[in-house]
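Chapter summary example.
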Amino acid sequence: MVETPRAKARSAAPAPPTTAFSERVRACFSGAAPQYEGSARIQRAIAWRLGHLCQPLAIGPGPRADLGAGTGLLARSIAQHRPDLNLLRLDNCQALLETDPPEAGGSERLLWDLNLGLPAQLAGASLLASSFALQWLEQPRLQLDQWASQLARGGWLVLAVPCAASFQQWRQAAELANVPFTGLALPQASDLINAAERQLKLLRCQRLRFSRRRPQALAFLRELKAIGAQASPTGQLSPAELRRLQTHWTPSPLDCPLEWEVLLLLARKP
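The structure predicted for these 270 residues follows.
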């Protein structure tokens, strides 16, 4: 439980997105859409946790949305815990949205690039929920600030996002192998917490740690590709660089834990 003083501030408008990277992200997720849910184990677990957090919330009238909804993991989890809530599902990848089509039941879908900010119809939102999406935006802190500004008084933000303390083992292996780190540059948890505190009252603020054993670098990189999470401003490694990375991935070929740091926020607009 975190309660801190807040300073009122006007949200800065996010800059227009760099379309090349936004398109690369969309292309990667489009290719992985058919198998996304079968491979996105951590994302599924976090979606369930966020849905559970929504269960006791007193949510008033106003727009409600799942930002970066993908295949609808979070929106469905919230619906399971709160059948009275109907969330608009926004995503920049049509293929992901189509894996959970409206005719199968559920809420409205909207193809939308969140790098542009939020659409006008979400002004005065009573609930903005997002899981594993903010890190793909080019200015995560500014976007979070804008999301908070769109909430109505008494509106809720429910958020989970992987942060910069993730994948230290991967970074160390890349440094030892003298090859580029090709993972996404994740936002600092402290920056996002500070952005949220400017306009919102934080009721829950946790840095969750997840670890999984990865005996080989290539196996882990294939898992990222299986869910479309391989997009990065850094180019791909050559076969020779991949071999060097694999050599330095872990001192023991039998053990290579990879860690995620996931920031979880539950906040309300006073």
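To summarize the output: Residues 1-17 have pLDDT under 50 and may be disordered.
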